[in-house]
Design a protein that fits this description.
The protein is α/β, with parallel strands linked by helices. The chain has one domain: 3-Layer(aba) Sandwich (Rossmann fold). It contains 5 helices and 9 strands; from the N terminus they run E-H-E-E-E-E-E-H-E-H-E-H-E-H. A 9-stranded mixed β-sheet has the order 5-6-4-3-2-7-8-1-9, sandwiched between helices. About 40% of the residues are buried.
């Protein structure tokens, strides 16, 4: 049975937007987090992490100190773990659908994050999230799971993917 649903696709293909639409449309009892760009004067400077109940932090930023670097961004492991990981754990405790946006290079810098994701995937709760398109040992294992559906989002198939995911979430 499929209980873990992930959307993949190129950056800025609308993955996060689609997840937020699905949560709203189904009025999902969900917990977890999503990420959004931090832009200043039209230039992307980083990413913020926001829980579904409104707690916010900085996932990554160009001008912070951190030993964890992805491209030009320094990853803020503390906010990822104290806000993102905690929101996954809380959703599991409350038997909610777990939202994980996203499983990408920045998030995978945290062992606590990876452990929380695996706990969610192995739980009874449904998981809806976004996952990096490119190959990586951690995400490849997730993509290969029998209880997991990966949908590759493009502009052309957006509505079809949305209907498919809604159907999966409504079944069971």
């Amino acid at each position: 049975m499929i209980k873990n649903i992930f959307i993949t696709g190129k950056p800025a293909s609308g993955k996060t937007t689609l997840i937020m639409e699905i949560i709203k449309e189904l009025n999902l009892d969900a917990g977890g987090f999503y990420t959004l760009e931090i832009r200043e004067k039209g230039i992307r400077k980083g990413f913020k992490i926001t829980t579904l109940d409104g707690e916010e932090g900085t996932l990554a930023y160009i001008d912070i100190k951190s030993p964890y670097v992805v491209g030009r961004y320094k990853v803020n492991i503390r906010d990822l773990e104290e806000i993102g990981v905690k929101s996954i754990s809380d959703a599991l405790k409350e038997n909610k659908t777990v939202i994980v946006d996203e499983i990408g290079l920045m998030e995978m810098k945290s062992e606590k994050f990876k452990k929380a994701v695996l706990t969610a995937l192995n739980s009874k709760s449904k998981v809806l999230g976004t996952i990096r398109l490119e190959s990586h040992p951690f995400t490849d294992k997730i993509k290969a799971r029998k209880d997991t559906k990966i949908s590759h989002l493009t502009r052309e198939n957006r509505e079809e993917i949305k209907k498919e995911i809604i159907k999966l979430l409504e079944s069971s």
